[in-house]
Design brief:
mainly alpha; two-stranded parallel sheet; 18 helices; 63% helix; globular
C-alpha cells in the first residue's frame, strides 16, 4: 500500500507456499518498506518469521479499533489487512515482534507444557483428597494422617483385585489417581531439567542473580524474547512486565498504584524475586526498612522493588556479564588433584553445592567467581616440578 491509497487486496494460505506467493505479490506492487502483521505471537507467527527471513521489516499491529471497524462495515479479513497496512505505513505501529527462533522460544513452549502438567497434578491431588473423604472407613483408616506424598505412594501400591465392592473400587480409583500424580510429577521434573538447561544456555548471568530461579528466569526471558534489543530502554521492559508505576493522584494527593497491565507471568516473576530478596538479601532488607520509615505500606514497597529489579533484569538480559564456565572449573579442579571437600572447605560451603555448581544444576555467579579465583590462586602457588 502506498501513501496514495489502497493498491489491492489478496488472500494467501497460511503455509510456506502461501507465504512465498504473498512475498511475490508484495514485490509486484512495488518496493516493500515494511509489513504490519497482527498476532505475531500466535496465528501470525509463521507469516512474521517468513517475512523476516525474506529481509522484510515486520512490525506488530495491535487489534484494529472496533469503532473504525464498524465504520468500514464490520469485521472481515480484507478490512483488518487494510487497517494493519495503514498502521504500518503511517508509523503508528512500531513494535518489533519477537523473532521466535532461539532458545527462548524453546523455553516458551516448555513452559506451556509445564503449566498444563502442574495444573493437572494439582487437579489429581484435589481428586485424591475428595475421593478419600467420601471413601469407606476401611480405606480412610489406611490414609488418615498421611501427607500428600505418602498418600500417593500408598495408593499407587494398592492391588484391589477383582472384587465387586465399594472398598475395591475406591482403592482402584485412588490407585489410578495416584499413578497419574506420579507420572505428572516425573514429567514436571523432566521439564524443570530442560528449562534449567535452556536458561543456562540462554543467559547464565540472569540465572545467577539473587532470588532468580529457573522458573522466574524463564518467564522473564520469554517476556523479552530471543531479540531483547527490540526494547528501546529499561522503561520499555518495566512496562512490558507491568512494573512501571501508574499515576493515581487526585487533588493534593500524589501517589502511584500497582500496574495491572503487561505480561502477568513476568510480573509474577518480579514479585517472587522481590519477596525472596526481602527475606534473604541484606541490601533489600535495608531498603525495606528505610522505606517503611517514610512511611510506605508493603504493597507500595514491593511496587518500588519490582521497578528496581526490572531495571536490573533488563541489564542482565540485554548486556549479560561474562560468567565462569562451571564445567571447566570441574576439569581444572580434577587436574589439580583437589577434592570436592577441599574446595568446599576453602570456599566455606558444602561439597554438594560445589558439585551442583560444576554440573550446572546450581547457578551462583558469586560462588562461581570465587571458585574460579581460588583455583587460579591455588594453581599459581603450587610448586613446579
Amino acid at each position: 500500500m502506498a501513501s496514495a491509497g489502497l493498491l489491492g487486496s489478496e488472500s494467501f494460505g497460511a503455509e510456506v507456499s502461501g507465504y512465498g506467493r504473498m512475498v511475490a505479490w508484495f514485490e509486484a506492487q512495488g518496493r516493500v518498506v515494511r509489513v504490519g502483521v497482527e498476532g505475531t505471537g500466535s496465528y501470525g507467527a509463521g507469516r512474521a518469521r517468513h517475512l523476516t527471513e525474506a529481509g522484510v521489516e515486520v512490525v506488530e499491529v495491535n487489534r484494529p479499533n472496533r469503532q473504525l471497524r464498524r465504520q468500514k462495515g464490520g469485521k472481515s479479513d480484507p478490512v483488518d489487512a487494510e487497517a494493519a497496512a495503514r498502521a504500518a505505513a503511517s508509523g503508528q505501529a512500531t513494535a518489533v515482534p519477537k523473532s521466535g527462533v532461539g532458545p527462548v522460544e524453546c523455553l516458551r513452549m516448555l513452559r506451556v507444557a509445564r503449566r498444563s502438567a502442574a495444573k493437572a497434578r494439582t487437579q489429581a491431588a484435589n481428586q485424591i483428597h475428595s475421593v478419600t473423604v467420601t471413601a469407606p472407613e476401611q480405606v480412610k483408616h489406611q490414609l488418615r494422617g498421611l501427607t500428600l506424598k505418602a498418600r500417593v505412594r500408598t495408593c499407587a501400591r494398592w492391588r484391589p483385585g477383582e472384587e465387586q465392592t465399594t472398598v475395591a473400587y475406591a482403592k482402584k480409583t485412588l490407585r489410578h489417581l495416584a499413578r497419574r500424580y506420579e507420572a505428572l510429577d516425573a514429567e514436571i521434573a523432566q521439564l524443570d531439567e530442560d528449562i534449567l538447561r535452556l536458561c543456562a544456555q540462554a543467559n547464565p548471568a540472569l540465572l545467577a542473580a539473587p532470588g532468580v530461579g529457573p522458573d522466574t528466569a524463564s518467564a522473564l526471558l520469554v517476556a523479552a524474547g530471543d531479540n531483547p534489543g527490540r526494547m528501546n530502554s529499561e522503561r520499555s521492559f518495566a512496562a512490558l512486565c507491568g512494573a512501571s508505576p501508574v499515576q493515581a493522584s487526585s487533588g493534593q494527593t500524589m501517589r502511584h498504584r500497582l500496574n495491572r497491565g503487561g505480561n502477568r507471568q513476568a510480573n509474577q516473576a518480579l514479585w517472587r524475586i522481590a519477596t525472596t530478596r526481602m527475606q534473604n538479601d541484606a541490601r533489600t532488607q535495608a531498603y525495606v526498612t528505610r522505606r517503611e520509615t517514610e512511611p510506605k505500606n508493603r504493597k507500595e514497597i514491593i511496587r518500588c522493588l519490582k521497578r528496581h529489579i526490572a531495571r536490573e533484569i533488563y541489564r542482565l538480559i540485554t548486556n549479560p556479564p561474562p560468567t565462569p564456565d562451571c564445567a571447566r572449573l570441574r576439569t581444572r579442579r580434577q587436574h589439580a588433584g583437589i577434592t570436592l571437600t577441599q574446595a568446599a572447605r576453602a570456599l566455606g560451603t558444602h561439597p554438594s553445592r560445589i558439585s551442583a555448581l560444576e554440573l550446572g544444576r546450581n547457578h551462583n555467579h558469586q560462588r562461581a567467581t570465587r571458585y574460579h579465583d581460588w583455583l587460579h590462586t591455588h594453581q599459581a602457588t603450587q610448586p613446579t616440578i
